[in-house]
Specification:
The chain has a domain of 132 residues: Rossmann fold. It has eleven helices and ten strands. The strands form two sheets. A six-stranded mixed sheet has the order 6-7-8-3-9-10, sandwiched between helices. A hairpin with a 2-residue loop joins strand 9 and strand 10. Bound molecules: adenosine-5'-diphosphate (ADP) and magnesium ion. The site of magnesium ion has 3 residues, from helix 1. Adenosine-5'-diphosphate (ADP) binds next to strand 2 and helix 1. GO terms for molecular function: ATP binding; ATP hydrolysis activity; branched-chain amino acid transmembrane transporter activity.
């Protein structure tokens, strides 16, 4: 499969917490229309990689380039405005709001305010931003969520939270999307929706990094995978080849 030019590149990325090195000397890149899987046992540095790339934590060292510009250490809302957004391993949504309202918050949560501030601003969003509502409706249709747009989120099965979290990130029309365990806790039907959404994004030229443990889901959407163990890359290549790699087998069997 032919992918586009590099949109995100990180070199020598390292992040420590006190004496613990969560990510060490990690370099990789992501091209437009490419889906990269990031795999590894618990504690191997996958979420930290997303946290550092998205600007939640500054890197201890290393450089992050987004569309050719250095974004290392810039805060998440600035990184989001430049086209890269992420989802969280624990969805950060407002249960008492409808699906549509949660998605509408996306433009604000990712691009402008903190969640609390955005929560208070929901009335204003609804009144003042018909364009945002039209965009949210488009995102919900693309994710197969239009039938539940007006349902209060906390009344829906858990899996919807992850799908809504992805829909919300799409409100900023990202060039790069970082997904932290999007398939965790989803039913097979919900994974099917997620899968179609990821493949649509890939076809639209979005670069997608997916951290997940669901290998069948990954095998259906990724172009290649990187495996981390103890914060270090131990494998890079096709997901089929990963299954036969002795180092990968060892890091999983060793636990
Ligand atoms: P994964 O997502 O692969 O399960 P993480 O990136 O969350 O792993 O964590 C990697 C290591 O970094 C773990 O040992 C974890 O405890 C540690 N770590 C992650 N975030 C923090 C933090 N904010 N403060 C201290 N240690 C952290
Ligand atoms: Mg994690």
């Amino acid at each position: 499969r032919v992918v586009g030019r590099t949109v995100l590149a990180w070199t020598g990325l390292r992040r420590s917490f006190g004496g613990l090195t969560a990510v060490a000397d990690f370099s990789c890149e992501l091209a437009a229309g490419e889906v990269l899987g990031l795999i590894g046992p618990n504690g191997s540095g996958k979420s930290t990689t997303i946290n550092v790339l998205s600007g939640l934590y500054p890197p201890s060292s290393g450089r992050i380039e987004l569309a050719g510009a250095d974004v290392s250490g810039l805060p998440p809302h600035v990184v989001a405005r430049r086209g890269m957004v992420r989802t969280f391993q624990d969805p950060r949504l407002v249960g008492r709001f409808t699906v549509l309202e949660n998605v509408l918050l996306g433009a604000h949560v990712h691009a402008r305010y903190g969640a609390l501030e955005a929560g208070f601003g929901i009335g204003r969003i609804r009144r003042d931003e018909p364009a945002a509502i039209a965009r949210a409706a488009g995102v919900l249709t693309a994710m197969g969520l239009d039938d539940v747009a007006d349902r209060v989120l906390e009344t829906l099965p858990y899996g919807y939270r992850r799908l809504v979290e992805v829909a919300r990130a799409l409100m900023v029309e990202p060039d790069v999307l970082l997904l932290d365990e999007p398939a965790a806790g989803l039913s097979e039907g919900e994974i099917g929706r997620l899968e179609r959404a990821v493949l649509d994004l890939r076809a639209a030229g979005v670069a997608v990094l997916i951290v997940d443990h669901h290998m069948d889901f990954l095998a259906r959407v990724v172009d290649r995978v990187v495996v981390l163990d103890g914060g270090r890359e131990i494998f890079r290549g096709a997901i089929g080849a990963m299954r036969d790699d002795p180092k990968v087998a060892e890091c999983y069997l060793g636990r």
